[in-house]
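Changelog-linked ticket: adenosine-5'-triphosphate example.
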Amino acid sequence: MTDAPYSVAFDRASVHFSGSDAPALERLSLHVEPGELLAIVGASGSGKSTLLRCVNRLVELSDGCVAIDGRDVRTFELGPLRQSIGYAIQGVGLFAHLTVAENLALVPETLGWTRERTNARIDELLAAVRLDPPTYRSRRPRELSGGQSQRVGIARALVAHPRLLLLDEPFGAVDPILRPHLQSELLAVLREARTTTLFVTHDVDEALLLGNRIAVMRDGRLQAIGSPRALLEAPPDAFTAELLCGDELLHRYRRARLDEREGRR
Ligand SMILES: Nc1ncnc2c1ncn2[C@@H]1O[C@H](COP(=O)(O)OP(=O)(O)OP(=O)(O)O)[C@@H](O)[C@H]1O
Ligand SMILES: [Mg+2]
């Protein structure tokens, strides 16, 4: 198996959950390049989590296609598909009866890594998400705060050098002081690994900071997609303008931050 990052393509993908009239995803088409970080924003219920879950087949499409490296996800075996994709979910989803280290070791063990390699990787990632390895390795999820659990969730998604990362509001419970540190740690890890990433967030500033491009979701549809600069400078519609730009002062602040970010690069 090579570890080149995956591309992801949605082609008129639709999801209709039984019992609900409106589709959760409606004819969504978009292409994510290998190594790209696509930030996904939009109101609650607009289909962001559903979009991610179609990729690792936690949700099956009603219509259309999702392909990884040009291959329909339905043609992969589920186990290997999910092992090659790192996934951190809104509700964290750590196994309560396992320690932090045991939670992180699950996929490496399946892949047959040596204990030394697994332990070294676990310590590296715990440090990257600012959890002191000796302190946190043997804790159980109930002994962690919400934000600490989320950070373990991010470490777990990254542990086996995935070819694709699906991150669903990974910093939602992390306090505003630590958040910028984790954002830059995550960026550094992703840049080094060049992992293709779909990153759902409610935080527009986070999307502008992290995304190579931003996708705006509305009622299960892709409302807009483009680079942070393109969307900030010329939002294609009023909804996108209101969501991304805010009032005049905020708009100016965000463009200045973007200048700063791009100047730093
Ligand atoms: N398993 C399910 N069964 C039925 N309806 C569902 C299911 N999962 C999601 N939905 C519905 O699909 C729509 C999209 O949900 P989704 O979780 O993708 O939204 P979201 O954009 O991630 O929202 P949030 O920002 O609140 O996390 C919502 O109307 C939701 O109620
Ligand atoms: Mg969601």
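Closing comment: Example verified and attached. Residues 11 and 197 are 18 Å apart (CA to CA). The beta strands are 8-15, 25-32, 37-42, 63-68, 71-72, 85-88, 164-168, 196-200, 213-218, 221-226.
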